[in-house]
Amino acid sequence: FGIGFALMLPKFLTRMWRRGGYRTGFLQRFGRYDETQLAAIRDRRRIWVHAVSVGEVFVALHFIDEMRVAFPGVGFILTTTTSTGHALAKEKLKPEDVLLYFPADFPLIARRVVTILKPIAVLLTEGELWPNILRQLHAAEVPVFVINGRMSASSYKGYRWVQPFFRRAVSLVDRFLVQSALDRSRMLDLGTPEETVVTMGSAKYDVAQPDPGGAETARSILVEAGMDPDGELLVAGSTWPGEESALLDIFVRLRDRNPALQLILVPRHMERRQEVETLLKARGLSYVKRTDMGDGGESRKSKCESRESKCESRNSERGEGGRNAPAVLLADTTGELKHYYAIGSVIFVGKSLGDNRGGQNPIEPAMVGKPIVVGPHMENFPGVMDDFITADALIQVSDAAELEAQLTLLVEGADDRRAYGERAGALVAAKRGVVKR
Length: 437
Known about the structure:
- By secondary structure, the protein is of the alpha/beta class.
- It has helices spanning 2-19, 35-43, 54-70, 83-92, 107-117, 131-139, 153-161, 163-170, 181-189, 204-207, 214-225, 243-257, 273-282, 337-343, 363-367, 382-390, 400-412, 414-431, and strands spanning 46-51, 75-80, 98-101, 122-125, 144-149, 175-178, 197-199, 233-239, 262-267, 287-289, 328-330, 346-349, 372-374, 395-396.
- Helix 3 links the parallel strand 1 (46-51) and strand 2 (75-80).
- The chain is globular and about 65 Å long.
């Protein structure tokens, strides 16, 4: 594993450089901590919770809050992998806890980190099985739990190629608390001891919490952008390459039928904003970038440029926000997607269409009672998708053509929107309670 990790290191470093934000705390990935961090670590033994990125961090923070109730006085170390997850954790974690980056999984680094942290127990969120860390924790007799565990189809397929090594790794974990019966079945098929795998449901039903001021925040953003907060809104959340092209083509045709329709487009990775802007300009759509807006002052509206170097959006003149109202808000910031879901008329959840695989979380828009459409590739949420499909609480399409047909029906059908939204909200309410269990 160490050899393979070393060979892939250039890829990891390139990704870090492109996404930015990784310089801060970089030495922590090699088990090097400053004196303030070391003093906090030595202050008392703590439970170590690891979460990769934003979604897992929300789950981890919710578990930490519940564990404070169950174990008063216990401290926590939270580690993350990505800079976005780290930023969220820094904002939400209590001052008495310790926030670090997860170490690289080399034997010497793993041994050093386990020796320094001396955790009471380790909770790994969803699917983080780092073999050298696990070996060192096992040698130190530290119990290890995987919480909100899942086994995606791609991971299952990949692990089958290295099944003997996988068996060795999972034998070092005390309990896998997994989301669905399918996750458990895949774990057992790969050789995980049966007594260690327990089906619990998805903790993300608990993590999704309504923000009382979210809708008002989103409305104020739209007003500032010059758009109509009371008009019909298509919200495309956490979109990936290829999805924006399909959605914008569909949106143009939907606007031909309903000139007042507006779009909030939220790419999953904000560094792609220029790429998405190019797509907007190519279609002559007027738009506003969220990063070009103030926190309450006038927005600086982006000028869309057609091939004739003029902004000639075919429909923006007729929007309810005014003659020159933008058709699209390009939401190129983090942390606001949940607010946009709260005011959306119809929601598309990304990373699920075309060549993209895995899907993004459909629970947040469901929590606020919205009609949801997803593509065919929601492999990261098998148990959740089973729940939604059984309850008829979302629409799953096979391709862009079917996506257009279903979006058309929902945009034009208020009764259908209301029915899907009500079923989605009821499902989320019924599935809560996993974290306490």
